[in-house]
């Protein structure tokens, strides 16, 4: 009765269910969010492709079939979870705890054509206008209706790529990263995580952002070499060094030491900076010079990105890589293009690492902002200044560079609590007598040239986005002196 097909994740479905009700079955992870209810009436065949949560419980919409009753309804969206079903006089409630097969059976056993479904929609997916949720649904529809074409950068062929058999270098929320070789060159490869809802869509967006950065903001980020999409039926296996099916992104391998690694030990930091900036001559304050070089590189890269209308949106030590030619950004999975042809840019809160963001500023555009259109992108950029999102993050990175005590996550969280109690005023925090960091803030690079570093830091961490300094202004601050 069942058969399996290989996708990014294993998809198992019943042919009978698909024929009569448009239902497929797919394993995903659980989600948690505050929710709102939506009640709709649909006719069979519903035109819904459903998938269960972890443990085969519950059901949510994975796809809406084109030209179906579900699409014509216009109110439901991909990601809505079924809470209750009413058919005739029978009702199935609490569907989040009901086995997926029982939900499908309840729909199939009734002869009535009208099906009333109560959906739960996570509040985080809602906004007053078009939100991120409908954005992804639109992209999904375009993929369903568009031609089935494997995406490949010219000159990038799967037979020329080999993947390391030593396992992944690391994992993020939606992607897995590997070392590999392409035409005898060392490369970095990334694919979407299996069984993570939305991972493929996020990797698609990262592809688009990397292509934009490669064209518009060269040298600010790791050099993007292109993509290679492989038919699931013809994919290889990692154990023999060939790429499995799916979409793969590829970058030039240009180093292995991130700023996060370097911050674990001043000796590693000095060595990484010396190699990246060719600082062979001794200097009486070599650590201070290293800190200024790193911070200036971050700001220079932000100037390049922001000049192209691109916001990285995930500036932190893990995403800064030392190379033979300085420091560059990696991981554009959260980035957004806000000018020219906007991408991943909508009103409301978006992806953000709370450790490196101002807690009341977790958006590029506030939820009540107009929806971006080709005609208003410049006005939105000028009015809402989305680039300032990266500036606050770079200020937190600068704090960790200059104050070793803040490099541990627990200490950084403690600083953020104290900073909030001080009204996000850096001067007040420095003078706070009950701060656990009192006595550790002296003799740092921040005090050079009559507290020039503290002055710059205050402008980077200003809670008012409009008053927060830009990357262009910050890089010319007197804190950097003669450092270039």
Q: Could you give the topology of this structure?
A:
Blueprint: E1 2-6, E2 10-14, H1 15-21, E3 25-26, E4 35-43, E5 48-51, E6 60-64, H2 69-73, E7 81-87, E8 90-92, H3 100-108, E9 114-122, H4 132-145, E10 161-163, E11 170-171, E12 175-182, E13 185-192, H5 199-216, E14 224-230, E15 246-252, H6 259-262, H7 266-277, H8 286-307, E16 310-311, E17 320-323, E18 326-329, E19 336-337, H9 377-384, H10 388-402, H11 409-421, H12 426-431, H13 448-460, H14 471-475
Antiparallel strand pairs: 1-2, 2-3, 4-9, 5-6, 7-8, 7-9, 10-12, 11-12, 12-13, 13-15, 14-15, 16-19, 17-18
Q: How many strands in all?
A: 19
- Write down the domain tally: 3
Whole-Å distance between the termini?
A: 68 Å
Quickly give the structural class: alpha+beta
Total of DSSP H or I helical runs spanning 4+ residues: 14
Largest sheet: 6 strands, antiparallel
Helix content: 25-40%
CATH topology of the largest domain: the name is Transferase(Phosphotransferase), domain 1
Name the CATH superfamily classification of the largest domain.
Answer: Transferase(Phosphotransferase) domain 1
Radius of gyration: 25 Å
| Mean pLDDT across residues | 83
Apparent shape = globular
- What CATH architecture of the largest domain do you see? Orthogonal Bundle
> Stretches where pLDDT falls below 50 for ≥5 residues?
1-33, 124-130
* Top CATH class of the largest domain: Mainly Alpha
> How large a portion of the residues is in β-strands, by DSSP E?
15-25%
């Amino acid at each position: 009765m069942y058969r399996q097909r290989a996708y990014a994740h294993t998809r198992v479905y019943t042919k009978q269910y698909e024929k009569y009700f448009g239902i497929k079955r797919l394993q995903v992870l659980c989600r948690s969010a505050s929710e709102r209810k939506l009640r709709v009436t649909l006719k069979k065949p519903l035109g819904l492709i459903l998938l269960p949560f972890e443990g085969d419980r519950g059901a949510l919409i994975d796809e809406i079939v084109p030209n179906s009753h579900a699409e014509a309804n216009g109110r439901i969206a991909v990601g809505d979870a079924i809470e209750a079903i009413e058919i005739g006089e029978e009702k199935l409630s609490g569907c989040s705890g009901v086995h997926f097969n029982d939900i499908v059976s309840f729909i199939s056993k009734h002869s009535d054509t009208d099906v009333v479904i109560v959906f739960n929609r996570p509040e985080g997916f809602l906004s007053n206008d078009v939100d991120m949720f409908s954005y992804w649904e639109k992209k999904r529809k375009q993929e369903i209706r568009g031609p089935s074409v494997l995406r490949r950068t010219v000159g990038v062929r799967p037979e020329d790529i080999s993947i390391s058999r030593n396992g992944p270098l690391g994992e993020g929320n939606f992607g897995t990263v590997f070392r590999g070789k392409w035409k005898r060159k060392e490369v970095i490869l990334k694919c979407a995580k299996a069984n993570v809802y939305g991972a493929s869509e996020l990797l698609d967006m990262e592809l688009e952002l990397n292509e934009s950065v490669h064209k518009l903001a060269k040298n600010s980020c790791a050099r993007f070499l292109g993509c290679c999409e492989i038919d699931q039926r013809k994919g290889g296996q990692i154990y023999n060094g060939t790429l499995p099916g799916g979409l793969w992104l590829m970058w030039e391998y240009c180093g292995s030491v991130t700023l996060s690694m370097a911050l674990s030990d001043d000796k590693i930091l000095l060595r990484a900076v010396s190699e990246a900036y060719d600082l062979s001559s001794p200097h009486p304050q070599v650590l201070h010079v290293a800190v200024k070089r790193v911070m200036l590189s971050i700001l220079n890269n932000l100037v390049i990105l922001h000049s192209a209308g691109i916001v990285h949106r995930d500036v932190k030590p893990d995403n800064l890589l030392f190379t033979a030619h300085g420091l560059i950004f990696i991981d554009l999975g959260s980035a957004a293009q806000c000018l020219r042809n906007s991408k991943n840019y909508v009103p409301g809160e978006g992806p953000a690492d709370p450790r490196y963001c101002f807690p009341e500023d977790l958006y590029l555009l506030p939820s009540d902002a107009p929806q971006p259109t080709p005609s208003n992108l410049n006005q939105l950029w000028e009015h809402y200044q989305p680039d300032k999102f990266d500036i606050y993050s770079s200020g937190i990175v600068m704090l960790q560079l200059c104050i070793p005590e803040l490099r541990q996550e627990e200490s950084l969280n403690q600083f953020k609590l104290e900073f909030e109690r001080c009204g996000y005023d850096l001067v007040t925090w420095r003078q706070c007598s009950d701060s656990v960091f009192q006595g550790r803030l002296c003799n740092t690079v921040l005090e050079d040239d009559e507290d020039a570093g503290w002055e710059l830091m205050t402008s980077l961490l200003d809670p008012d986005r409009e008053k927060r300094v830009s990357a262009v202004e910050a890089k010319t601050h007197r804190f950097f002196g003669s450092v270039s």
